[in-house]
């Protein structure tokens, strides 16, 4: 007999752990259901029912309740691309010099620094309603010379209680992010110890990290292989420090390393997270042939940025069933245009919106990037209907989960899925009147409007109060570790202002 039948004959309500209710429940399910005066019932770490609040109150006896009349309940947000480390160097940036990410990561960071970063960025994501995030720690620029840094990151995220996809891999051998031969500084003894490392060594470290941490913290941590430029870069997108023209031998090396990456991913059953923009795949096809591009791409490849992809690029991506993660505010966007979202969607490419992390001028607030994405596409195509509010919100929930291969467990509110749920406080001037929740959230909501956060059925934030960690301790620790790193690397040129800084073009 079903629960409904039992209730009809007077059975006692079923005990559950949590009932989350709101003026609207946006499910992001296959039917795009928005339930007015709805609720989500949670037992242990799973959703057991979704429907009208009055009906669920008759059927269930919750030990705890979240939500309220003027709230919007929706799935936890999924940020499918960001970088570990960035949270600790916010605003350390000069428009001419760039930012000292590599210097700090490779010459001034310690395991304690990386744990502080994981806690800080994890906390930032949590209070913004991001329940699943990707964090590139290996690759370019970050630390894959020793597994101790990944261990520190996993330890930090584990304390926050959210989900994390940790990206590990070697720096790109063709771009000058790091002087060659590659070296890092190990500060664990209290003194700077120079540590040489190689591409192959980083691959070995990445394999170790996959073996040790994939599935850690009750499955909330997963690991992927981060390869900065799996298919190389086209000269049309390489400017400044990214400029490099591949020789025929270099092209062969790109293909060889790409095949190694696919072999690694297949052996360990993990995704490959990489970067690409206009002409990346078209360029490799011209230099090495279509078969070689097809050998490197596949459904296990997640392509970050995707700015200005050509029709030939899109054809190769779609044919391989790879996915694209667009960063609306990415630096490539100003040079080659936004990711061609309408064309990608029409071609059947899994596509989502992400933040790229919290530095040097980004923020982990996905709602900000939804707003940017909608208007960038409207401006580029002169058509505001091509990325409407509902689609944009799906691109930071269920469709972002699909990009990471996690849509069977998270990304939508459906019976049987993990209970990753957020509650938005709609009882505010900028979210009033309380109508058309999808447009209300996409146009006006920000991360600070998230009131409650649940991951795996566990309440991590309630009425803006973080429950999983001591918020003040996380912030104090981050400040202390950042200050130590800034003593090891001189950041003065990046934080010095001038009259032009304050007066702009007039000077």
Can you walk me through this structure?
The chain has 507 residues and is α/β, with parallel strands linked by helices. The protein has two domains: 3-75 and 422-466, Urease, subunit C, domain 1 (Roll); 77-403, TIM Barrel. It is built from 19 helices and 20 strands. The strands form four sheets. It has an eight-stranded mixed β-sheet with strand order 4-3-2-6-17-18-19-20, covered by helices on one side. It has an eight-stranded parallel β-sheet with strand order 7-8-9-12-13-14-15-16. It has a two-stranded parallel ribbon with strand order 1-5. A hairpin with a 2-residue loop joins strand 19 and strand 20. It is globular. The N and C termini lie far apart (78 Å). Mean pLDDT is 94; it is low at 1-8.
Supply the key terms:
37% helix; 2 domains; 19 helices; 21% strand; 507 residues; Urease, subunit C, domain 1; TIM Barrel; eight-stranded mixed β-sheet; eight-stranded parallel β-sheet; alpha/beta
Brief characterization of the structure:
By secondary structure, the protein is an alpha/beta fold.
- Tell me the CATH topology of the largest domain: TIM Barrel
Instruction: Tell me, briefly, the overall form.
Output: globular
CA radius of gyration is 23 Å
Assigned CATH architecture of the largest domain: Alpha-Beta Barrel
Strand-pairing-aware structural class: alpha/beta
């Amino acid at each position: 007999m079903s629960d409904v039948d039992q209730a009809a004959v007077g059975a006692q309500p079923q005990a559950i752990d949590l009932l989350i209710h709101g003026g609207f429940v946006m499910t992001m399910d296959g039917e795009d259901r928005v339930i007015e005066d709805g609720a989500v019932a949670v037992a242990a770490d799973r959703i057991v029912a979704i429907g009208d609040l009055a009906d669920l109150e008759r059927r269930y006896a919750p030990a705890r309740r979240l939500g309220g009349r003027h709230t919007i309940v929706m799935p936890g947000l999924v940020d499918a691309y960001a970088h570990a480390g960035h949270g600790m160097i916010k605003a350390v940036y000069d428009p001419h010099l760039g930012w000292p990410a590599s210097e700090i990561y490779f010459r001034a960071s310690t395991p304690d620094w990386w744990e502080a970063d994981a806690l800080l960025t994890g906390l930032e994501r949590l209070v913004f309603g991001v329940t699943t995030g990707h964090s590139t720690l290996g690759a370019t620029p970050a630390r894959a010379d020793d597994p101790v840094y990944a261990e520190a990151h996993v330890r930090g995220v584990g304390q926050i209680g959210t989900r994390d996809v940790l990206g590990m891999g070697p720096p790109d051998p063709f771009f000058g992010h790091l002087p060659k031969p590659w070296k890092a500084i190990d500060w664990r003894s209290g003194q700077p110890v120079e540590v040489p490392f190689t591409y192959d060594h980083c691959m070995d470290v990445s394999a170790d990290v996959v073996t040790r941490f994939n599935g850690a913290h009750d499955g909330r941590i997963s690991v992927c292989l981060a390869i900065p430029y799996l298919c190389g870069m086209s000269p049309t997108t390489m400017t400044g420090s990214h400029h490099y023209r591949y020789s025929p031998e270099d092209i062969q090396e790109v293909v060889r390393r790409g095949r190694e990456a696919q072999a690694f991913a297949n052996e360990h059953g993990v995704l490959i997270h990489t970067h690409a923009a206009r002409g990346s795949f078209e360029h490799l096809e011209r230099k090495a042939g279509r078969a070689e591009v097809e050998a490197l791409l596949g459904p296990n490849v997640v392509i970050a940025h995707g700015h200005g992809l050509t029709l030939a690029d899109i054809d190769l991506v779609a044919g391989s069933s790879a996915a694209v993660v667009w960063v609306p505010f990415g630096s490539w966007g100003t040079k080659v245009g936004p990711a061609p979202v309408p064309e990608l969607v029409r071609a059947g490419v899994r596509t989502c919106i992400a933040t790229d992390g919290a530095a040097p001028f980004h923020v982990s607030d996905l709602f900000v990037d939804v707003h940017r994405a909608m208007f960038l596409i409207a401006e580029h195509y002169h058509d505001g209907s091509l990325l409407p509010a509902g689609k944009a919100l799906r691109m930071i929930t269920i469709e972002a989960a699909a990009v990471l291969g996690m849509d069977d467990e998270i990304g939508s509110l459906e019976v049987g899925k993990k209970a990753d749920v957020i509650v938005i406080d709609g009882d505010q001037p900028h979210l009033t009147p309380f109508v058309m929740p999808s447009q209300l959230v996409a146009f006006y909501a920000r991360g600070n409007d998230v009131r409650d956060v649940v991951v795996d059925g566990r309440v991590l934030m309630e009425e803006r109060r973080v429950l999983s960690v001591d918020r003040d301790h996380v912030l104090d620790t981050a400040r202390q570790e950042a200050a130590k790193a800034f003593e090891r690397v001189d950041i003065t040129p990046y934080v010095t202002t001038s009259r032009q800084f304050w007066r702009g073009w007039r000077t």
